[in-house]
Amino acid sequence: MELRQFDLNLLVAFDWLMQEQSVSRAAERMFVTQSAMSHTLQRLRQQLDDPLLVKTPSGMKPTERALALIEPVRAVLREVEFLIRQPEVFDPARSQRRFVMAATDYMDFLLIPPLIERIAREAPGIDIHVKRTDLPFPEKELEAGELDIVVGFEAILKPAAYLNGRKLFEDRMTCLLRQEHPSIQGDTVSLEDYVGLKHMLISRTGTRTGVIDDWLAERGLERRIALIVPHFLSAPFIVANTDMLLSLPLRIAEQFVRLAPLRVVPVPIELPSYDLVMIWHPLRESDPAHRWLREQIWDVCQDLNQQTNST
User: 187 phi and psi, to 5 degrees?
Assistant: First the structure.
């Protein structure tokens, strides 16, 4: 007989029948009538092609076939019970879990330091592996469990609609320059000065243009990009020692001001704000450990929001 033709629910009844070796007592243990249990025994006999329980002067006794099935059936039932049992409560303080996150440079710089500080304090046994985000979006890695969460700009990540996600906060473009810049003395920069000065560009892919250049091109304008670097690491120190302007997200600019003699002024063009999101696969939605990590990321981002709003 093929598995698809066998009613697996009968295995529970078989286990009770073998334990009690009595139809009436097995019926009581399963909270069914004796008639229903007798019918179940008949179905077992038909599907297994064996009498299973035989009447003798000293009561019902299992056949050799039934005896051979007792332990294998109980092992199967134990495995099934384990599979359907409610997961244990996740205890971050005792967990040895390892999570893998993919993050843009922006989120690596802004989110990871406070997140790791929080995890080290509340869950010292948990390890975090941070990878760079790849394009196209790593859907297969999320589905396979090779990645737990991806964080970054939604407009850049462009995750598939079926994936789960949550907006963490917004950011907007601003302009960073050295404190003693010779051409810009006040708290603003004109569009004419903005276009006329040299610019530094952070481009992970090496692309020479972005949304700012598209906006300028629509108006017949173009800025000079004198330097392109692939990441944020050297940016504050280069800007602090040159007359170049750097257009970048406000939250990063605020951090750079703490590292070098820099100041922030608004970008003199109209650009929409950007949504920062975390993305995960629906397969991990109900995992208690995964839910805990998402909560930590959310809480850290709310702290970052409060810090920005208070400045």
Answer: -95, 5
3-84 maps to CATH 1.10.10.10: yes
CA distance 199 to 180: 16
| Domain parsing of the chain, residue ranges | 3-84, 98-171+274-310, 173-266
pLDDT digit string (tens) for 26-73? 999 999 999 999 999 999 999 899 999 999 998 899 999 999 999 999
Question: What is 98-171+274-310's CATH number?
Answer: 3.40.190.10
From the candidate CATH numbers 2.40.50.140, 3.40.190.10, 3.40.50.880, 3.10.180.10, the one assigned to the domain spanning 173-266: 3.40.190.10
303 close to 169: Cβ distance less than 8 angstroms: no
Contact 287, 295 (CB under 8 A): no
Q: For residue 203, what pLDDT band results from cuts at 50, 70 and 90?
A: confident
Alpha helices in the chain (DSSP H): 10-20, 23-30, 34-48, 64-84, 105-110, 112-122, 139-144, 154-157, 191-196, 211-218, 235-240, 250-257, 288-310
Per-residue pLDDT at 310:
59
